[in-house]
Amino acid sequence: MSINIRNEEEKDYRNVENLIRESFWNVYQPGCMEHYVMHCFRNDPAFIKELDMVMEEDGKLIGHAMYCHSEIKGDNGKAIPTITLGPICITNEFKRMGYGKILLDATIEKATELGFGAVINEGNIDFYGQSGFVQAKPKGIRYADDPDADYLLCLELKEGYLSEAAGTWADPEGYFVCQRDPSGFEAFEATFPYKEKLKLPGQIF
Ligand SMILES: CC(C)(COP(=O)(O)OP(=O)(O)OC[C@H]1O[C@@H](n2cnc3c(N)ncnc32)[C@H](O)[C@@H]1OP(=O)(O)O)[C@@H](O)C(=O)NCCC(=O)NCCS
Fold it and tell me: What angle do CA 51, 53, 58 make, to 5 degrees?
């Protein structure tokens, strides 16, 4: 088994969008939108190209992760620059075999090398906690959409970076492209093979 983690290149775009669609399909809602979010993010100024990573095993695409710029609006009036991860995914056949953690850890290492201070995003502590993420709420960081949320997670890449970061964090605008442009999303989705949308237990939307 030979794993390679590298930056996404233009030749990967459609394969990555297919991977995201297959991996997220029916997980959080009937169908999914994350492939269009990714498609549009590549042209968003908040997109961090150096942290747009693919994972291959023996040359086959099996995972992808991207990050964008975000910020905490500090209660003291100062903005604290952060980065936000997502989407991140592993191909269905390889889920729960440790690959997601390997990919996440590799992106965290790269983000640290690049000098970013902290990562903040919503997520499941069962997965992110294994890579050092903690709840943001005890640091006084509130999620704009749900101030009491304990699923807002953060990871300091520089020690103490979030020690005076009490404030509000909101999802970067790029995540709302499907709500802003539903017909653009529908047109994009129509370029993929049909898949059945199912309402399943555990979905959150
Ligand atoms: C979430 C995802 C990236 C994790 O990658 P993965 O390769 O499946 O995860 P790993 O095998 O590295 O998991 C490591 C540990 O994290 C935890 N974990 C991973 N996925 C989890 C999930 N869906 N629910 C709860 N815990 C999870 C488990 O403790 C797991 O260890 P275990 O399998 O021994 O119990 C992958 O399952 C995926 O693509 N899911 C669909 C898309 C998604 O939800 N992305 C995240 C939100 S952007």
Answer: 155
